[in-house]
């Protein structure tokens, strides 16, 4: 079996680094950002599994970045939070509307059997739950972690990283993470349609939301499952 190349971080701009996602949509593995700071780095999303989180941890060490002190959730969906239990000694931050959702998710009896049973009961869950099964090597010590610190509208961390709630159809707790000194806006999945099992035929991208987020103060716009876009590229997207 050929060796798998280790995950590596690439610097996007200023102190923002990206761990790329998997381009295969069936794997549902998005990018994760690290905002480096000597006071402690900020991790934006946890990875979609403990194994993914450990890959990111190795990449952070290889890049020589300061250890992670804060973990900011862009929203509560599994591919953004299931790696959280592999991040010890970090403060998890998310929008208040996602906290109770994740408490309920934490109470579910996660296992491969449970995933199969859920898909049998609701076949529309198939793509998401099969991706979860592929992501998880095992369930020992796995736990879904709600944010320990919440906010309602905006929150600025000591490192100058800003969290802003935007909501939307994809998830009620969708949050954008802004790094003003680096000119980077991390959008998560905020402008995506609802998840596949909840999506209606006419649901699409919320380009009006993107339009409202564009600003000359930010040169880069990053969603979790696509390539980073410059301000000019983002403007072309919303005008097409």
Count structural domains.
1
Strand order of the largest sheet: 1-2-3-4-5-6-7
- Kindly state the percentage of residues in helix: 25-40%
CATH fold assignment: Metallo-beta-lactamase, Chain A
Rg calc: 17 Å
Tell me what portion of residues adopts beta-strand conformation: 15-25%
Taken in chain order, the helices and strands follow as EEEEHEHEHHHEEEEEHEEH
Largest sheet: 7 strands, mixed
Number of extended strands: 13
CATH first level:
Alpha Beta
What is the name of the CATH superfamily? Answer: Ribonuclease Z/Hydroxyacylglutathione hydrolase-like
**Helix count, DSSP H or I runs of 4 or more residues:** 7
Low-confidence stretches: none
Termini gap? 44 Å
Overall structural class, as computed from helix and strand content, comes to alpha/beta
**Mean pLDDT, all residues:** 95
Which architecture does the CATH hierarchy give at level 2?
Answer: 4-Layer Sandwich
Shape: globular
Question: What do you see in this structure?
Answer:
- The chain is an alpha/beta fold and 240 residues long.
- The protein has one domain (10-239): Ribonuclease Z/Hydroxyacylglutathione hydrolase-like (Metallo-beta-lactamase, Chain A), CATH 3.60.15.10.
- It is 27% helix and 22% strand.
- The protein has seven helices and 13 strands.
- The protein has a seven-stranded mixed β-sheet. A six-stranded mixed β-sheet has the order 8-9-10-11-12-13.
- Strand 1 and strand 2 form a beta hairpin.
- The protein is globular.
